[in-house]
Structures are given as C-alpha cells and as structure tokens.
Amino acid sequence: MKLKALAPFWRSSDVSAPSDPLVSLRREMDRIFDSFSRDWLAPMPELSNGFLMPKVNVAETDAGLEVTAELPGVDQKDIEVQVSDGELTLRAKHEASKEEKDEKKHYHLVERSYGTFMRRLALPFEADADKVEAHFEKGVLKVMVPRSKAAAKEVRKIEVKAG
Predict the structure, then answer these.
(1) Is the pTM of this model over 0.85?
(2) Whole-angstrom distance between the N-terminal and C-terminal Cα of the chain?
C-alpha cells in the first residue's frame, strides 16, 4: 500500500501529482484567503495607520492589570473607559478632515475620515472599580485596574494526603 494514499491532501511540489478536484479546490481557497488577508488593508489609509486596530498591551501585576493603548490623533474627550461585570471596555473615536485648494493648478481636494475603536478585555480577577485610573498623554492611553481587597486575600494551600 502506498503511504501517499493515506494522506488527506497531496503534499508535494511534484508536477506529476494527481489532479484531485478536492486538492485543487483547497489550493484555490488557500490562495484566495491569503490574497485577501494580505491586500485588504492596503487601500484604506484609516485602517493602515492603525487607528481601527490600535496596539494594546496588557500586563498583569501583583497590584492588578496595566493596559496601554496607542491612540494617535485622538482627543482625550473622545476616549471612554468603563469597568463593568468583570470587563474593561475601551472606546475611542477619531475624526479628521483635510481640504486643499489651488486655483493655479485647478484642483480642490476634500478628504474626511471617521473611525471608532472598541476593545473589551475580560478581567482575570475581581477589580476595585472605584480605584481604576486612566491617563492619556501624547497619544498613549494607560489604564490601571487594581485588584479588589477581596480578591487580594491570601491563598490557603491545602495539603494532599496519601490514600
């Protein structure tokens, strides 16, 4: 018995590979998805500058959770931070407009972009919602979510006995 017959898909660069229609379909679908995921952000500048998918870093410390989000070009008044039902929610909106006019070259350019961002993070502990702090400086949002006193209680180690 040939071992290749047991493989679910032909995995060879051999030109003489059998022309199985399912293999052809899979290769075509892989090509389409690879092309889509590689090219779909390029023509949209509001996505390619990272606003609708800003970088968010999350670090858990002994004191609680530290969240950092890069939100360039966003005003502080357009940022909302909420803690509710064991989740931290970050929301931001960004509006930009640009207008250029040159009578000598006979052109008039008007561009507008609008985007929103929302990210929800499940908190791995019970948070002290009254002591959550958020600071925004130079396009970077920093949120500190402290653990509640109840969650910070000592862990009791239980001895495991034989038999």
Answers:
(1) no
(2) 51
CB atoms within 10 A of CB 117: 20
Q: Which two tokens stand for residue 92?
A: 């931001």
Distance of CA 119 to the CA centre of its chain: 8
Report whether 88 contacts 121 (CB < 8 A): yes
Which among 32, 3, 6, 5 has a CA at the least distance from the CA of 18?
5
Q: What is the pLDDT of residues 47-99, one digit of tens each?
A: 444 456 778 999 998 888 999 999 888 889 999 999 998 899 999 988 888 88
Which burial class, exposed, middle or buried, applies to 142 when counting CB atoms under 10 A from its CB (0-12, 13-18, 19+)?
Answer: middle
Residue 80 near residue 92 (C-beta atoms within 8 A): yes
Are 120 and 67 spatial neighbours (Cβ–Cβ below 8 Å)? no
